[in-house]
Amino acid sequence: xxxxxxxxxxxxxxxxxxxxxxxxxxxxxxxxxxxxxxxxxxxxxxxxxxxxxxxxxxxxxxxxxxxxxxxxxxxxxxxxxxxxxxxxxxxxxxxxxxxxxxxxxxxxxxxxxxxxxxxxxxxxxxxxxxxxxxxxxxxxxxxxxxxx
Length: 148
Known about the structure:
Helix content: 40-55%
Strand content: 15-25%
Mean pLDDT: 86
Strand order of the largest sheet: 1-2-3-4
């Protein structure tokens, strides 16, 4: 019995079919997405943490300036809003670093009475509030009661 060499080659297919290659690519893509997705989410969480830290620092720096100001100048000097991208440092210079571009601040200082105070006397306390927003969304707020 003789075997035809051409016939035996046809009986054994070599390589992959288009359906098999497509299925392999789909499975590989799903596995890659499963591996890479946590990394991209981690980067987003890290960026948000950096923004929160920077916002808290901006609020604290302004609150420290308010506390260091003489009490009779606080209410008249610290009621303003810094627009987005116009946040200023202690000297009054606008921050030019791109990481500050999305931030805005608002400070409100008002004279207040505590319940134990007599209404006959002028208010002895100042409530200072500093709010920091990132792209219009509130991120950090500090309140402090200052004794005159």
